[in-house]
Amino acid sequence: MMHRPASRSPLSASSEKFDLDGHGQSALSSSILSKEYPKSLVSKTEGALVPTNPLHAVHEFCEEHADLLELKCRDLLEVEGSKSIEEALQNVSETGKTVVKGLQALGQAHPFIGVAVGAFVLVITLDLTRRENDRKVIAVKMKMQELMVVFFELRHIQSPASRGQDGKSISERLLPLMQEIAGDIKGCGSACDAYLKKGFLMRTVKSGKYEQRLAEFGTVFDEHRKAVELALSLHVAIGIDSANEKLDVQQDTLATIERKLDMLALFRKLDTPREKDMQRFIESHGGAKACISSDEALEELIVRSGELSVARIAGKDNGRKSNDLPGIRKRLFKELQEDIDETFNRNMVLFERKLEMQNKQLTDALHEESSHIISTLLSGAHDRIIDPDLQKIWKDMGWKGSVKARHFVLALHDYYTDQLNRQQPPSASTQRFSLAPLKSPPPSRPTSARSPNPALRPRTDDRWALAYINAAYVQPILEAVDDDGTGFVSVKEVNTFVESRPEGWSLPNWIAFWAVGWQASISKYKNQIYGVVQTMFQVLEHVLPSNRRAIDEYLFHASFWRIELLLRSTRSIGWKVMADPDLARITEVYSGKEEERIEVNLKDVGYELDTPATVALVTGEGRIERYVFPLLYLLLKRHLRVMKLACQHVLDAEELASLNESLVSVLLTVDERIQNLEAVFKQTHLDVQGRFGNFAFGLFQLSCGDIRRIPSQNTLGTWVDEDENATMGKEELTLEAIQSSLKYISRDILKFGIQDEFNAVDYYEFEPHRLRGGVNPLQGNVVGPLLSPRRGGNDHIPYYASTFNFGGSTVRSRGGYDFQFAITDDDGGLCRTCSGHLSISTDTITASWSDRRKKGSPDEIDYASFTLRRTPPFLHRYRYAPHAYAEDPVRARWSFACNAVLHEVQAKMWSRRFFEEKFNDRKRFVKLSTRDMVVRMGLSPQQPLTMAERQELDFLRRDLDPSEARFYHALAAFEIQKLPWHPAWGCDWCERRITKCRILCLHCMSEDLSDNIDLCGVCMDRMPTKRGFSHDVSHPMIKVEQTLHDFHFARVVEGAKAALERAKGIFRNVEAVSAGDDMSDFVLMSPRSSRTSGGSGAVGDPSDPRELLACACCRKTVTTPCWACVSCARDTFVCHDCDHKRLPALPNGPSPKHSLSHPLVRIRDSSIVGQNATTEENLAALQQRLLNLEHKVADGLSAIDNKVEERLSRLEAKIEHRFSTFEANAEMRFDTLEALLKQVVAQTAALPSIYGEVVREHVQSYMRR
């Protein structure tokens, strides 16, 4: 029996959408297929079939498109050449649209197919908006299309209700199958959607399973196609359709079974060169798991995949090597372990929402189209314009298909001015206002469903709008009408513009809004987005340490500086323009209604914009520039609520990553629009960049061409709202204010829920005493060594696996049970079989693994047999080793029994010693595991485990109870999660990912702050030379404990430079005072004005100048080198020792408000460097650098000497050990040889004398030789 895709299981949760109504037609298809068309219409209207006789039109359709309907997926196997395959696949989408038109007409004659046709229409139309597709997905869609083409055989059956001799009609035969087909189409669409959302690298490492599941859908569609063909053949053969001509049944339809298409073979043919290269690389390196485990192979895998950047919208690469290999490895391992069915089931929820939105939009479009279809068919060229005013203008001006935008706007102004003058009586000609409205009849077709509340409609007097319909506003009016940006307005664009007008609005109101009101709207959203982002960075200071890394990575994502480019390049409107109350009113009305509509759509998809196609569904028809700011504002406002929850609850790390994906989808839509506009502008303008500056008020100007991150120009942290009323009353956001706002934020907005608790695994649920019903002898807990002793130890235990299910067979045998089960490995779908035996007498299990690789390497440790025992897990640590049992079995057993009993007695008595041991085990396990994970993840700073510590950790991992070890491992991972990560590129010396403190060189930094030398705390005194920078230890450096975002970057750098100059000035002045100057007349001055409000420049009391250099943590006088705080209002110093020990500031010290998270600048000496320095000071600085270099060279040489001596001593010890071992072995061998010779002599003496003489002669002859 063919296995059906498991992703069909969730269909029952949403089957209401496909439930049949009383007429045997689905609610989904009724809105798409059940339209009543006028009888006078021909069979085709604007490319869609709208027949008076649907079956007659379907016959014509099949005759006209016979070649398309005969296209089969198997034909791709016969196509040769990559170019030919690409051309064949490109025709699939056009064929799909053609098939949809025919099926819509067929549904008029046979409504019972509506449930399947409706699902097919939604899946196909939703897929048409996707920018790029996968060859394998297109092949599966071709199989789906082959199934739907069979439906056209229904054109030979006139009535779906006529019954045959068996009492069944064709609708009754096929109706249950239609529902099943609709479910499978929907499941396939969701599976393809989930597959395409995975990155290329993610799909490649798990390609075997994904391709197998997609191939199953192809097989299911083949089965459905055969079932439909069989039902049609039986219906005709029985003679049910006696009123019609019988279908010409092919004689071999039932006799010949069609050759099954091997989808997997087709997938191999459809592999792109990049996919083939990736597969060869993975296979040559031992499979996906081996590639992911190796740093070199994983790096090469990333390069070959082409996914060099985490974000697809990050613009130009700066050439820095990514240090996110541990994060990528974690995600890839998670992808390998994730069940595909669970992935498809999760995606089904979002996919259903997208289908509902697509269904609604198609229904609205069909209703609008049907009401206007007659007038469109019967009209002339100018009569195709649906607005009477524009129709009259078009006719009077004699325009044809299109007109220049400037001429169009001027004609509009002249027309409405002339109409206004005609309405005014002569006595009122000099009046400025009139109560009579301009006549602008509504269009002949219904407008968009987005209609505002009647109470908020603009007033009926349109006179005010004429001021905005003139040549001064040609550009924004043109952009509102001219969707393609060519500079010409066509009839279609005019109709689209009029159709989008809200109900109750006159055309002058609508034009006035786009002339000025839209700029006011985007200016408002621009300010709101700035405000939300600034609030996010205030909330960042209060998030839980366990969430800080995820929030930092979210805010550091490339999508934020891309959003900043959009905000910075958009020109805000002058607020004096909005003094017109009528303009302000219509702007507020329309903006509010559009925001409400987008927000409803976002709620429908759960605020998850997984692809640009979903963005198009949420925004609806129209240019993305119309919706990008309100859409970003609503998304960021939602993300701000999630960040506030992060102040109180632990969130899943993937929660914030999914939020970034929504922003990326919006920006990818923006990029697509920019590319389309750029192609048009290059044909009509020489200065494309300047053209973008005029288009949409400069919205895309900074986002076109080669873009890159420039922190020095980032305005997210420096923006100030020009509206004084908006800035008044704003206070710093406190933790108490955040917690009070959490009462109004539901946890349901989280996709992955809160992670405040540890999800423990019940390892004892399968014990026989806890199971009901029959108990299998194999059930229960068994323990054993994780690795075979032949390996000599456990080198690497990265994770503790969770529970999983598998099935097998057991057979009663002599002395126990033989069993066998198979599981499919995540690495390339490798099937592994475990065979073993349960001994009843010893209650032990002996088993071994095997797979197809065993033949090539049968001696591998993976195929060695292993033994599992019923010893309770918490007592396994006391069990004797095999060698101990071999030496003294009685002693080994008694030792195990005594220790096990003592453990259980102490546990039941709650012994203090028992809990102390538990506490020490947990403390050591967490500490050692954390240090080990830091090394394995490539983080810095590192403290590798010694050999003794490694053995201790291996012992704890091996002998602790699994439930305890799993919990301790989770604690260690939680410690890693709480580390202050720096989502940059890593240390430029050791190339490890930086945690804790990050060192930035102020000297080795580009002017736009886009690149600099980064060092970790361990490599602070190193001198790397990279990317054109030559770092030196004498350079001034900044140390930051938290992620330095572009939001604060420029401010911190400028503050560090100022603090460095002030600190050096203080040091020089204190040195001058200490040198013997008259302190009574000396006023200690800083070379820069003080931060105090007095501004006199005095930085301290001259009576005790050394107090100025007191450490904020120990009050001792600091000396260079030391650190100065960049953030504190007072000049604050921290000595080297206090900084190394990370001591907090003293409450009664010189700077009690200083925090460990404040950035510090290093003060190496008090010399002046730069243009303000004198010759003597420059010479002193040079002398100081030479001394530093001399000390560094001496330290380096001494370090080399120590290293050489250490290596020589180790080599000497190794040689001595080898010699001693050799001597011992040689002595043992000589002793063995001597004993052997004595034995030979003794045996020879026992022989007769004749044999003795022969032996002696033989020995003597041998000795002589």
UniProtKB/TrEMBL annotation:
It comes from Coprinellus micaceus. Coiled coil: none annotated. It comes from the Eukaryota. This is EF-hand domain-containing protein. Residues 421-433 have a biased composition (Polar residues). Transmembrane segments: none annotated. Residues 1-22, 421-458 are annotated as: Disordered.
